[in-house]
Write a structure and sequence with these properties.
globular; 7-stranded mixed beta sheet; 117 residues; mainly beta; 0% helix; 53% strand
């Protein structure tokens, strides 16, 4: 079974940057980042797809976040810039059939991001 391990979450000030990493136990065609704030539903943030090729970003993070893959390492990254308090939450890496929470077939354990002064 595929295993996903996230890292890189931290406490950061508003306007700061973080890079999250997701290490996969094997090569995966379609992967995504999702997040969940306390009391809110889990939402998609960004996806990196190989088939068909493309990336997806939630409107709330467009222009600030960037998703990328290092195929040699089976690692996906999420570069987060200009962070806002509303970006706080648990960030999950996932293997997906399509870019939506309903499309996830494997979840990572999550990494915590807190944006606060």
């Amino acid at each position: 079974e595929v295993q996903l391990v996230e890292s890189g979450g931290a406490l950061v000030q508003p306007g700061g940057s973080l890079r999250l990493s997701c290490d996969a136990s094997e090569d995966i065609e379609r992967m995504g980042w999702f997040r969940q704030a306390p009391g809110k539903e889990r939402e998609r943030v960004a996806c990196h797809l190989r088939s068909p090729s493309g990336t997806y970003y939630a409107d709330s993070v467009k222009g600030r976040f960037s998703v990328s893959r290092d195929s040699a390492k089976n690692t996906m990254y999420l570069q987060m810039n200009s962070l806002k308090p509303e970006d706080s939450g648990m960030y999950y890496c996932a293997a997906v059939k399509y870019c939506a929470t309903t499309g996830v077939y494997v979840w990572g354990q999550g990494t915590q991001v807190i944006v606060s002064s």
